[in-house]
Amino acid sequence: MLAEAAQENRSETAANAPEVEWSRVIGQLKEEIGDIAYRSWLAPINVQRVDGGEAVIAAPARLYRDWVASHYADRILALWRAENRQVKRISVVVASPSHASRSFAAISESSIELSQAPVVLSGELGTTVEIGEDRPQPCGLDPRFTFENFVVGKPNELAHAAARRVAEACSAASRSVPFNPLFLYGGVGLGKTHLMHAIAWDVHKHACFRKVIYLSAEKFMHQFIRALRFKSTMDFKDEFRSVDLLMIDDVQFISGKESTQEEFFHTFNALVDQNRQIVISADKPPSDLEGLEDRMRSRLGWGLVADLHPTTYELRLGILQSKAEQANVDIPRKVLELLAHRITSNVRELEGALNRIIANMQLVGREITLESAQEELHDLLRLRERRVTIDEIQRRVAEHFNVRFAEMTSARRARAFARPRQVAMYLSKQLTSRSLPEIGRKFGGRDHTTVMHAVRRIEELKDTDPVLAEDVELLRRMLQG
Ligand code: ADP
Ligand code: MG
Q1: How far is CA 149 from CA 142, 321, 326, in A?
Q2: Atom of ligand 1 nearest to the CA of 188
Q3: Is the C-beta atom of 304 inside 6 A of ligand 1?
Q4: What is d(CA 71, CA 85) in angstroms, rounded to the nearest whole number?
Q5: Which residues of the chain have pLDDT under 50?
Q6: 70 in ligand 1 pocket by Cβ < 6 Å?
Q7: Of 37, 103, 302, 345, which sits with the fewest C-beta atoms within 10 Å of its C-beta?
Q8: What CATH homologous superfamily does 157-308 map to?
Q9: pLDDT in tens, 219-272
């Protein structure tokens, strides 16, 4: 009797296993990613089955599937394996209630293996299958990272134009290669990955028969090591050398990793010889990449090197407006201005702040006002404000240009004093939340129009005078660092 009960218990546990495992996995993931992301993306996901080495989870729509596959699949797999070592692969399928009775073939699938495959986009090789009027959809690419969603401004216009050019040339019937490689570089969160995904989406849209591979340098290395281990280096080479467009993100990652560099170098040369397009991104220009062989470094600089500069206030405001529009929420302009002024480090943080405000509004049902936004982002904004004060800016700028601190507030109009003063006013506008009249007062009781003039003047000069542009950039970094 007892034995029987125990037996029944066991079989019940076995039958429940996928649900139990899944609930543990998402329980853990929820801790890691927070309540809002959990509710937005994971709560609607259900487990379907665990079969052999494969765990299948179901999303209610393609958007969820793509998002979960590109953002959480790695982590889900790792957590699942901690529960059940048998699981080697996670598949995310779209299964709306009406799909439930259809055959499995009607379900679009996106899966991730233990050692994740690069994103491969191509007619024959599509990693996903979608029945219906849609073409195969690539997984692993962020659906939001398109050209349409990329806001162009002075700091990123060259990189954007170059990326567009590459996408067009690659899609054209007479596939051409405008510059090889296109090398995009810039600080964290300025849009390098966004532009690369945008190229991939664009080529996919206009010429889905082209073979495009996008992957991070880190994944490139893991793939290569895996190929070495499984003695499949020929396949590895064939895979990479048969592409029309190869994009490798964050190439600084392979600094100092010699054999990966070696392989990358050969792949690179083989593709260049065959006139195939390569796009590379890094956090620094080729000449500053340390731990890279000289021949590699010089080769990387052969094509077009385009940098993404730190954002300006105007660009940040533009990005916020576009994101608010995409999210389909009405946010008072004052709130967007506050964010654009105060969160200057990178676009990712800016987006994070905006999302917090939107989530708060949607969850608590509260209207967004300047006050509620300030309250919601209290910690974030205080942190920034503490960082830079006008006094500090004046002191640093005076030191940098070698003028006395008193010149910041003096009435002297000689350029040697006026220019540093204008730079300090400009930086005060950029880096603090003070209004023009407040800034004017801090600069010896000047009028707000003087401050406005100074801000405009420096903006103009930054475009025409590279030395000044560099001074301003350096000061900005010092003050924010
Ligand atoms: P990077 O790869 O340079 O570190 P990402 O491309 O990941 O930066 O960008 C970080 C975030 O900022 C992404 O969500 C991206 O969509 C957004 N972003 C960056 N620049 C822009 C832009 N010009 N327009 C719209 N979104 C942007
Ligand atoms: Mg990136």
Answers
A1: 11, 11, 9
A2: 4
A3: no
A4: 22
A5: 1-15, 97-137
A6: no
A7: 103
A8: P-loop containing nucleotide triphosphate hydrolases (3.40.50.300)
A9: 888 888 888 888 778 888 888 888 899 999 999 988 888 888 888 888 889 899
